[in-house]
Design goal:
With 316 residues, the protein is mainly alpha-helical. It contains 13 helices and no strands.
């Protein structure tokens, strides 16, 4: 119980420090939106434990959650911006929408495949841990960001904390090359989606950008799911879980994420996604009753400290 108290205390202190040091309204708003999205993503693993074993393949989980997310986005977009917003933009941003849709579909399909090949804890750590590196590399090559020493050091510390959190308490750790490659590919797809969405929300509203790209991603994911496996037989529990995954961990989360990207760098947004494994870890401890080790607590401190440095470097 003492460990649980300390973990919650550390998490709340981190939130307070972010609020205290980053009082620029636009930056703070963006950072909190992205952090809120990452916290919602962190509940996905716990939610999926309520599915019956073998009820849904990873591909169908990805397709159904994108479907329910699209069912949230499209009516909202119609109400907020009218039916014309459902059309293809005439300013050339349709290319970015197409690229974002492909990247999001690839990320969803690769992510669930990575979880199956590498395990949830290790797979998530590699996917989410590699994404900030990919995003920083993409932004640097595009010439939009030149990361400083503090930012790079903060990224390294945060990623090290995430990896330590995933591997803490494991005596025998090995990862097949194919699993590692799938995890890294998922991280690249997620980073690419983030960088392109950052550019897209400069010309379209976050709601329209997200709705159009996710609708395309849903079509791609369903095509892959239909082509590679039989139709799923959903139970009432399965429908409830996939509804939660679609409406909250995908729909609401990515709407927050795209809104936040208007005010923070894409690489910072991806770095804040490291709060996803932190949330999953805290839920595993507080809800599932998993044991807490000193290594896990040290990993949490490293990860939060690294994120603090990343945020501090952008706010300066």
């Amino acid at each position: 119980m003492l460990f649980i108290y300390l973990l919650v205390k550390i998490y709340s202190r981190f939130t307070f420090l972010v609020f205290f040091f980053f009082m620029r309204s636009s930056f703070l708003t963006g950072a909190l939106c992205v952090a809120g999205a990452a916290i919602l993503w962190g509940t996905a693993g716990t939610a999926q434990t309520f599915l019956n074993p073998g009820e849904l393949s990873p591909l169908w989980v990805a397709a159904l959650r994108l479907l329910f997310a699209a069912c949230l986005f499209l009516p909202l977009l119609t109400c907020r911006e009218g039916c014309r917003a459902l059309g293809i933009p005439k300013d050339g941003s349709w290319k970015l929408i197409l690229a974002c849709g492909v990247a999001m579909a690839a990320y969803n399909l690769l992510f669930f495949a990575a979880m199956r090949m590498a395990g949830v804890a290790v797979g998530t750590a590699i996917v989410i841990g590699s994404a900030p590196v990919w995003a920083t590399l993409i932004e640097t090559l595009r010439g939009s960001v030149r990361p400083g020493a503090k930012r790079l050091f903060g990224l390294a510390v945060a990623i090290a904390g995430g990896v330590l959190m995933a591997t803490a308490g494991r005596e025998d750790f090995s990862l097949p090359l194919a699993a590692l490659g799938t995890c890294l590919a998922a991280g690249f797809a997620y980073a690419s989606f983030t960088v392109m969405t950052k550019e897209l929300v400069g010309s379209l509203s976050p709601l329209r950008a997200t709705a159009l790209s996710f609708t395309l991603a849903m079509v791609i994911a369903f095509a892959v799911a239909f082509a590679t496996g039989p139709l799923p037989v959903l139970t009432l529990k399965g429908i409830g879980v996939t509804l939660y995954l679609g409406l909250f961990t995908t729909g609401a989360a990515y709407l927050l994420f795209s809104s936040g990207l208007r005010h923070v760098k894409a690489s910072t947004g991806v770095a804040l996604s490291l709060l996803e494994p932190v949330t999953a870890f805290l839920l595993a401890v507080t809800v599932a009753g998993e044991a807490v080790t000193f290594a896990a607590v040290a990993a949490l401190l490293l990860l939060l400290g690294g994120l603090f440095l990343v945020l501090k470097s952008e706010s300066e």
